[in-house]
Amino acid sequence: MPNQPHIVAICGSLRDESATRVALSRALSGVEEAGGTGELLDLREFDLPLYDADDRLAGDAVELKRRVREADAVILGTPMYHGSYSSPLKTALDYCGFDEFEQKTVGLLAVSGGRFPITAMDHLRSVCRSLDAWVLPYEAAVPRAHSAVRNGKFTDDELAERVATLGGQVVRYCKIEPCPASFESEENIGAVD
């Protein structure tokens, strides 16, 4: 299919048996079902030291930034740690900026061992808005991950379908027309040292 949108999914979990990785794989299945191509960016495979503004190109930062920048849209996936998103994902986002996210569609997915990981998605939504990304209103949460995902598969077909729908929605809205510039967007200059 010509002009297939390419979606990258960034996995903010470093665990070998990660429910976040399983969920992102299912979301990428939804991307393919909707006519796009998908790629999992597994942060275990990137050398990303803690972000230091004096060394913005440390480790594999250049490669990560390139792959995010070249994507038509992004899905961010994270486990919920202490009510927020993971530190590996925070580090990856710190290396990225407007060049990677401005006017780009972003889908959010969060996984929790307990109840709904809403605050993790709220925090990611704020970060993405600060980068002038367009965050989908549709989001996917995987609560009680210890029972929702077993042996690398979803145990709940309805939940698996909700996660796949996120991938389809990202494809559907990846070419949305950007919002016109506003006073607020002109004032948002990002981190300045």
Automatic annotation (TrEMBL):
It comes from the Archaea. Pfam families: FMN_red. GO terms for molecular function: FMN binding; oxidoreductase activity. Coiled coil: none annotated. One of its GO terms (cellular component) is cytosol. Residues 6-146 form the NADPH-dependent FMN reductase-like domain. Its cofactor is [4Fe-4S] cluster. InterPro entries: Flavoprotein-like_sf (IPR029039), FMN_Rdtase-like_dom (IPR005025), NAD(P)H-dep_reductase (IPR050712). Gene3D superfamilies: 3.40.50.360. PANTHER family: CHROMATE REDUCTASE, NAD(P)H-DEPENDENT FMN REDUCTASE LOT6. Belongs to the SsuE family. Isf subfamily. This is NAD(P)H-dependent FMN reductase.
